[in-house]
Structures are given as structure tokens and as C-alpha cells.
Amino acid sequence: MKKIKRIGVLTSGGDAPGMNAAIRAVTRLALYKGIEVMGIYNGYQGLIDGDIKQLYERDVSFIINRGGTMLYSARSTEFREWSGVLKAAASCEKHGIEGIVTIGGDGTFRGAVDLTNAGVPCIGIPGTIDNDIASTEATIGFDTAMNTVVQLVDKLRDTSESHSRCTVVEVMGRDAGDIALQTSIAVGACTAIIKEIPTDFDHVIEKMIDARKNGKRNFVIITAEGMGADYGEDLSKMIESRSGIETRFARLAHIQRGGSPTLRDRVLATQMGCAAVENLVDGQMKQVMCLRGNNIVAMDIFDALTVDKLMKGKLKPEEEETIPPNKLYEMKRIVADKQAYKNYLNYIIDHITL
Ligand code: F6P
């Protein structure tokens, strides 16, 4: 097996706390194993533009605790075209980059698959606050974002209690309701409103009115941004008019993406970064690092993308037909487990709040 001499590392898509910890782990372990590391700045666009610098041990010092990404991030329209992918592959050739560790969300992995198809094998590390990568139980940044939401909603609850109000809080997650569901449990919200599970508003309003009669002053409702742009504000008005409880709306927005990563995200990022390098050294490219239980396992990057499409309802029937039955069964099981977990969290929220 040919020994790999030089790899690249990049971050792409929305940044997430813990990306720096992953960059550090990739760089440090690769150097330890005698592999050179090229830092690619500004994601795939930076790769096309040759925005690349060699990284040494000390370049990744004192970043494990920092939010954002030291390699910066960008969404590249040029890289979406095949001509852009070829330019990126040519840039790898020019800089002697034999494989790339790509850290990001599903868009980053689609890019990694394109680059792999263009001859540059990639290994993906899931880094997004949304937790919307089907193949892994957790993505880097998810835990920190949720902790930020909890801190902020606790503050909103203080003022809600003083004024005897309801606060509708919109959290991020793109189309996924993971942040909304788990934070709803952690802040004691009356309900989480997410795309994946329909809400029975008659039931929610009835519960709120009963609880108010029993002396409850503050109410929190968490809604996921995936419900739509004006959804949260409209919902606040609807809640107020139907329940008679004064209601305010708060959109937490990008504040959820910043800040120092939690212990959990630092450890996850470090484990995934190290596993990515171990796989590269073993000649196992074209993989995505996934958390399953307490272990990091590698899943074929094409399969990871397929299971992701399946979860997001984006897998075309003609694509599904090409998947061997046992593999399709396993993919459907992963998706069903995720949905079952969401249903369970939703059940808990409904039964133990108010
Ligand atoms: O994917 C992370 C995320 O923060 C999503 O939750 C959100 O929908 C999106 O990125 C916002 O993107 P931008 O930073 O481009 O506004």
C-alpha cells in the first residue's frame, strides 16, 4: 500500500463549535504519523483559489477552546459546477494533496463525493449544529448550540415569569427539529414544533389554559426554523389570541453557532479527527466518520449520502432501485431509528410538561 505523504483539511458550510478541535486533532495526529498537513482556507472556494498553507503543530495550538473555524468557511457557487470541481482537483495536484479531510454538513459531503469522483479521495467529518446527518448519532457543534439555547431560553423564562407571558422561541436546525426537541426537554417547554412531527394545537392550547388556571405564569414554546420564515411570529399571535396569554416571539439566530465548544463537542471532534487520520493511514478513503454508541465508525461516503437523502425524502425511486436490498434495509433502519427517537422525545415533552 502506498504511504500517504500529504493531506489537506478544510471546513465548509455553516461553521460549528468544535470544528477547531477537529482541525487540531487531524493536524496533530497526521503529523505524529509523518504525514504533512495543508490547511485549506475558505472551504472549497479556497481550494479552487489555492488559499492553502502548510500547518505545523503550533499552528493549531490554543484553538480547542475556540468557536468558529480557524480555516474559515464559505459557500462556493463555483464548486457546485463540475468545472469548479475539476479546478479544485487540479489545485490538489499542484499542492501535492493526496486526500482531504472535509469537515461540515451534508453540502460539504456532497462536495466531498464530487471531489472523490474527480480523483481526490475525501474523508468526511460531520460538523454542523443541525445534527441533520443521518449516518451519525451526533454532529460536532450540536451539543454546544443546544447548551447555548438552554442558557438563552432560561433568561427568557425569567422575564416571562415576571410578566406572566408565553415566549415562542425559534431555534436553528435548517429542516431538522433535533435542536428544538432536545432543548424543549431541557428548558421545560410546553411543546416543540418541528417539521418531522405534526402538532395538535387544540391540545397544546387546552393544556396552556388549564395550567394558567392552576397558577402557571411562564410558558415556553420552541419552534424549529424549518417551519418557515414567518412561522414563529404568526404562531405567537395565534397562541395569544387563542389562549389569552400574552406572548412574545424571539429568534435566537446565529448566536447559536458561536461560542466555546462544550466538553462533549471537543471530545467528539477529537475522536472523529483522529479516526479520520487512522482511516487515511489504513488507505480507507471515501468515508464519513459516524458516532454509534460510544464508538466512531466509518461509513462509505456514498452510502452516508444516500442514507441522508433517504432521511430527507430526497432519494429518487430510480436511485433507490440501484441499492442492494440488505443495504437498503440497513439504511431504512437507521432512518426509522432516528424518527422513533424523535417521536419518543416528543412524547416525553407532551407528557411531563404543564
Ligand atoms: O447549517 C447551519 C445553519 O446555521 C442552519 O441551522 C441554518 O439554517 C443555516 O445554517 C443558516 O445559514 P447562514 O449562516 O448562511 O445564514
Characterise the protein shown here:
With 354 residues, the chain is an alpha/beta fold. The protein folds into 2 domains: 6-141 and 261-326, 3-Layer(aba) Sandwich (Rossmann fold), CATH 3.40.50.450; 145-258, Phosphofructokinase domain (Rossmann fold), CATH 3.40.50. 47% of the residues lie in helices and 16% in strands. The protein contains 12 helices and 11 strands. It has helices at residues 19-32, 43-49, 82-94, 106-117, 142-163, 178-187, 201-213, 231-243, 263-281, 301-311, 317-321, 325-352; strands spanning 6-11, 36-40, 52-55, 99-104, 122-126, 166-171, 191-193, 219-224, 247-251, 287-292, 295-300. A 7-stranded mixed β-sheet has the order 3-2-1-4-5-10-11, with helices on both faces. Helix 1 (19-32) links the parallel strand 1 and strand 2. The mean pLDDT is 97. The structure holds 6-O-phosphono-beta-D-fructofuranose. 6-O-phosphono-beta-D-fructofuranose (F6P) binds at residues 14, 105, 128-130, 172-174, 225, 257.
